[in-house]
Specification:
With 164 residues, the chain is an alpha+beta fold. Helices cover 35% and strands 28% of the residues. It has a single domain, classed as Aminopeptidase (3-Layer(aba) Sandwich), CATH 3.40.630.30.
């Protein structure tokens, strides 16, 4: 079941993110890896910046999370994670489709690590287009609040929808 998450789900969101993010260890630059991958203070700042999390629950356990953040003329898909034990069951796809139905803009962007090939393939499978380095750098600096080193090692994918 997909549901909008609230402050009562804060610890469960952290659990999912930090469990799933283990996939990045050894894949992203060592200087960008930390444990926990997302500390509580960082999650709090992300929520305060306007990210609304949604999640999949099974047997009252949060198994997958994904955030949506409208910023001006674009919608960002943020922090998509599925518990390691629940991966490869279509939960990410369900969450993405749900969030795309909520997006109020024609342009939807997602950022990820350039070495997270599995994430890039996931978004491409759902119609997103990998952008050039030049466009990626421009968009990361405009819509994300991340360190320069993360900009250098990340990519942006875009889904452009046509209005009917």
């Amino acid at each position: 079941m997909i549901r909008k998450l609230s402050n009562t789900h804060f610890q469960a969101i952290l659990t999912v993110v930090n469990d799933a993010a283990i996939a990045y260890k050894g894949k992203i630059p060592d200087d960008r890896w930390k444990e926990p991958y997302m500390p509580a203070e960082e999650l709090k700042e992300e929520i305060e910046s306007g990210i609304q999390f949604y999640g999949c629950t099974e047997n009252n356990t949060l198994t997958a999370v994904m955030g949506i953040q409208p910023i001006g003329d674009v919608t960002l898909i943020r922090h998509a994670y599925t518990l390691t034990s629940s991966q490869r069951r279509g939960l990410g796809e369900k969450l993405l489709k749900h969030l795309l139905s909520l997006a109020g803009t024609d342009m939807i962007l997602v950022g990820t690590w350039e070495t997270a090939t599995w994430a890039i393939k996931f978004y491409e499978k759902h119609g997103f287009k990998l952008l050039s380095r030049e466009e990626t750098n421009k968009l990361l600096k405009k819509y994300w609040n991340i360190p320069e080193r993360q900009v250098e090692t990340s990519v942006v994918l875009e889904l452009e929808r046509q209005r009917q």
